[in-house]
Design a protein that fits this description.
The protein is of the alpha/beta class and 155 residues long. It has one domain. The chain has helices at 7-19, 45-55, 70-83, 92-99, 128-144; strands spanning 23-26, 35-37, 60-67, 107-116, 119-126. β4 (107-116) and β5 (119-126) form a beta hairpin.
Amino acid sequence: MQTDNLISLKDDMIAFIAGHGMHRMNAYVHEDIPTVVFEEEHADSWKDFVEHAKAAGVSFLTMSEVTLEKRDIEILIEQLRAREFPDSDDTPDIDDAQYLVNYVGKTGYLQLGFAYNGIMFIYETSTEWYDRFQQLMESVSDFDSIIVDDPDADE
């Protein structure tokens, strides 16, 4: 997807789903659930996905979106600063996080899903800035999960 805001795509999806006589439920399908991810072959692959759902006889799709909020960036920057050695505001990751403020209020991620035979089928699309935001968030959580071996802790 070559845009920095997916809100018009979301509106198109809502209209297309309703036009097929299907319902939509606001819900996010977590990656811990058995899923099949629909591979995007062209810009309108999401339409194929909705048509597959209809052909499978499902009556509704799940839909989830992520709109970037200023607080999300503030938290990310705080966490990035906490992991820097020595403390510095001049790192590429912090610069990238600060640049994300340009996308506050924009929708960067959309997910459609439907259940069929105990499996969730998922369609996802995102913007480049959202992908970078996710990479930064994962780098912070990966850093937080590092366990320091303290030999004195056993005594």
